[in-house]
Amino acid sequence: MAKNSKGIHHITAIVGNPQENVDFYAGVLGLRLVKKTINFDDPGTYHLYFGNEAGEPGTIITFFPWDQAYKGKIGDGQVGVTTYAVPSGAFGFWEQRLSKFGVPFEKTARFEEQYIAFEDPHGLHLELVERESGKPNAWNLGSIGPEAAIKGFAGATLFTANAEKTTELLESGLGLKKAGQENDLMRFHASAELGNVIDVKLTPVGPGRMGAGTVHHIAWRADDNADQMDWKRQIEEFGLQVTPVQERNYFKAIYFREYGDILFEIATDPPGFAIDETPETLGEGLMLPKQYEHYRARLNQDLMPIAVRKLD
Questions:
Q1: What are the sequence ranges of the domains in the chain?
Q2: N or C: lower Cβ tally within 10 Å for the chain?
């Protein structure tokens, strides 16, 4: 029986200075730094995870921050826009907050919803949209209470080099439900309460170039290891090559590049971020996989110091 994706597990992007990254996503947007670790494939670089208070799937944005990284270009083969869900009635708060921190924004509309569009310090395209679905985020760093706090992902807009094949994969390969089309955007729905709305831009914008300010990949949810293997078989039956399982400590991952050149991942919900820190202390220590533990002293010396700071 064909499987239906719940939606987004996480989104991973490339950015510049790591303290600027922490200041914006924790200090300005109010997300919790739930894990401070390293890029398993480039251990001299941080891998930072931000999400809701528990670091639940559907709320996690992760970053590879390289100070002085060359600038990327958002384009086809990438997530073009990452959209966050905030509670109904929260727009006034966010307009004031973005203005307070000097973040330019504009209000847009599509599919009968209003959006606040802006960029992070390194050029990632972000949006806020008011949604009823999704539980409130209880994490509080400063003046952002649950009545306004970002719940998690609302969804994402995909820029593709082959819209016909990308939309076919979303519908027939990942089991998302087509919800409609407006101008050059086609909308799909997944079943989860967060990370469940995907828009695909049907007209190409030109090739993207990976670098600071671009999304590296988007990950979809798998219930567990067995479910992930079922997904692997389904995607391979769709005609795409899927990597072997990669151990990422907090989830297991498989990867494939779809026909529109976007890098997709399918990640397991378990075990989650509390396997090496308590729920109360998530994100406080530098957590290393076993194969890099003997480099801890060197990494502590080489990695740029970062801190979560209240900016109110």
A1: 8-302
A2: N
pLDDT at position 82, please? 98
Question: Domain 8-302, what architecture?
Answer: Roll (3.10)
Would you give the distance in Å from CA 222 to the centre of its chain?
15
**Measured between alpha carbons, how far is 191 from 247 in angstroms, rounded to an integer?**
26
Question: In 3-state terms, what secondary structure has residue 274?
Answer: helix
Going 259 to 261 to 262 to 264, the CA torsion angle's sign is positive
pLDDT at 140 over 90: no
d(CA 305, CA 288): 16
27: left (phi over 0), alpha (psi -120 to 50) or beta: alpha
Judge whether 63 and 13 are in contact, CB under 8 Å. yes
Distances (CA, A) of 274 to 99, 192, 278: 35, 22, 5
Alpha-carbon span 98 to 58, nearest angstrom: 23
Tens digits of per-residue pLDDT, 18-61? 999 999 999 999 999 999 999 988 888 999 999 999 999 999 99
Q: Which residues pair with 186 in a beta bridge?
A: 181, 200
Contact 152, 34 (CB under 8 A): no
How does pLDDT run across 289-306, given as a tens digit for each residue?
A: 999 999 999 999 999 999
Q: Residue 133 contacts by C-beta under 8 Å, 6 or more apart in sequence? A: 85, 193, 194, 196
Q: In 10 A of CB 130, how many CB atoms?
A: 17
Pair type for strands 263-268 and 214-222 = parallel
Over residues 159-187, mean pLDDT: 98
Q: Does pTM surpass 0.70?
A: yes
